[in-house]
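Exercise 7. Given the encoded structure of a 427-residue chain, write a plausible sequence.
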């Protein structure tokens, strides 16, 4: 219950940690880092989450899915019979990623733009850092496997939840941070164990907090209800580029927050004729999360077992829905493959012998280790002494089955759990 700190306090923390890291590198490596450069990176840390929508990632996902589905319009039966091509709506430019919205805010919001430019700050410099566009030399400080963003939220979540998983040894990491001869941020080999510990902290934090069963269940409901608000025009801003751009310029963006969205959900619950949507909206309002009725997990380096079970469960859900008389829309399969690092120890290479741009960027975002008497650092996954040289090739594959039960069906939860377990075990 204590884990209710704001994104505002987190962003202040990222700004602070970014400054501490740069000062440490400056002291440890005797490199020239100007006050202007430190200012720009601190601002990138402060503003990196500026573009988040209300309720963050569930709304991002809902906006992305909503506009994607609008482009997939099957032919009507009549049109198909007559060989008439079905008109498909032209693609709509969307700003579903918060980094992009943050960029648009810094580039177009009159108040922000004036505030930055009158103080000698180029907005483009700031958003190029958190967007990793032509990444400058310290962009990993804001987005990488070891960045100020992750450091702050791990420490902050540990503090507010009372859980030990995010207890990162920040002071020691700072004392061992360097810049190698290629201008890449790295840590000395003395901090190898600390870096392994940091990545394990993040892994356990994800499992115990970010992906907690109740959090994941409520995020599913939020995503579905927000999708319904997008379909019915219940939100002031729909995530299209035009809608977001207009709201930023005229100041309406500042009014688009969790409270206004929660009010829209309450209005939807009271006005919709769809009983399923009403049940979902009221579950959010009354904090009655869906029930986790089955969970399957394994740690491995391949996805075949994971994919086979997911296909099996998808095929079975409609049968369970019919058996228990629970609408299919009230069932949800949650799946996640959690990696410990952005890149594996064995990076896949294309047939042409080139690493993809995405893989190359992931390698650049790795924690880098500087060995004694060396000038150039290497990714932690390439150091055979590191736990990550092995664990980087593994992911925790998780499959969960949720069902939202109304008061009438709530007593059947145990029966549903036993049925699902028996059916999966029999296959």
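Solution.
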């Amino acid at each position: 219950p204590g884990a209710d700190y704001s994104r505002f306090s987190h962003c202040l923390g990222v700004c602070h940690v970014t400054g501490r890291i740069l000062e440490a590198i400056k002291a440890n490596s005797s490199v020239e880092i100007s006050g202007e450069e430190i200012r720009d990176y601190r601002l990138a840390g402060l503003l990196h989450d500026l573009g988040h929508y209300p309720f963050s990632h569930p709304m991002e996902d809902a906006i992305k899915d909503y506009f994607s589905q609008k482009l997939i319009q099957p032919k009507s039966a009549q049109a198909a019979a007559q060989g008439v091509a079905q008109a498909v709506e032209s693609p709509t430019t969307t700003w579903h990623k918060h980094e992009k919205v943050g960029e648009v805010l810094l580039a177009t919001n009159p108040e922000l733009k004036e505030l930055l430019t009158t103080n000698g700050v180029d907005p483009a410099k700031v958003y190029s850092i958190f967007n990793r566009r032509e990444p400058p030399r310290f962009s990993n400080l804001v987005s990488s496997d070891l960045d100020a963003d992750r450091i702050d939220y791990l420490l902050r979540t540990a503090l507010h939840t009372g859980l030990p998983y995010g207890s990162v040894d920040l002071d020691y990491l700072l004392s061992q941070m360097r810049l190698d001869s290629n201008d890449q941020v790295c840590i000395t080999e003395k901090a190898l164990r600390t870096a392994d510990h940091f990545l394990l902290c993040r892994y356990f934090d994800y499992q115990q907090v970010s992906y907690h069963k109740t959090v994941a269940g409520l995020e599913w409901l939020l995503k579905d209800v927000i999708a319904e608000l997008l379909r019915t025009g219940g939100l002031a801003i729909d995530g299209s580029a035009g809608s977001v751009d207009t709201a930023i310029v005229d100041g309406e963006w500042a009014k688009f927050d969790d409270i206004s969205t929660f009010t829209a959900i309450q209005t939807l619950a009271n006005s919709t004729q769809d009983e399923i949507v009403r049940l979902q909206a009221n579950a959010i309002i009354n904090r009655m999360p869906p029930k986790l009725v089955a969970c399957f997990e394994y740690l491995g380096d391949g996805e075949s077992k994971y994919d086979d079970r997911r296909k099996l469960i998808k095929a079975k859900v409609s049968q369970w829905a019919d058996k228990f008389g629970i609408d299919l829309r009230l069932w949800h399969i949650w799946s996640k493959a959690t990696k410990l690092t952005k890149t594996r120890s064995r990076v896949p290479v294309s047939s042409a012998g080139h690493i993809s741009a995405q893989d190359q960027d992931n390698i650049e975002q790795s924690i880098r280790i500087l060995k004694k008497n060396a000038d150039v650092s290497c990714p932690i996954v390439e150091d055979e002494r590191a736990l990550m040289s092995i664990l980087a090739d593994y992911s925790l594959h998780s499959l969960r089955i949720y069902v939202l039960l109304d008061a009438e069906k709530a007593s059947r939860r145990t029966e549903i759990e036993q049925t699902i377990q028996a059916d999966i075990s029999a296959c």
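Remark. Residues 20 and 83 are 66 Å apart (CA to CA). Students should compare their own answers with the one above.
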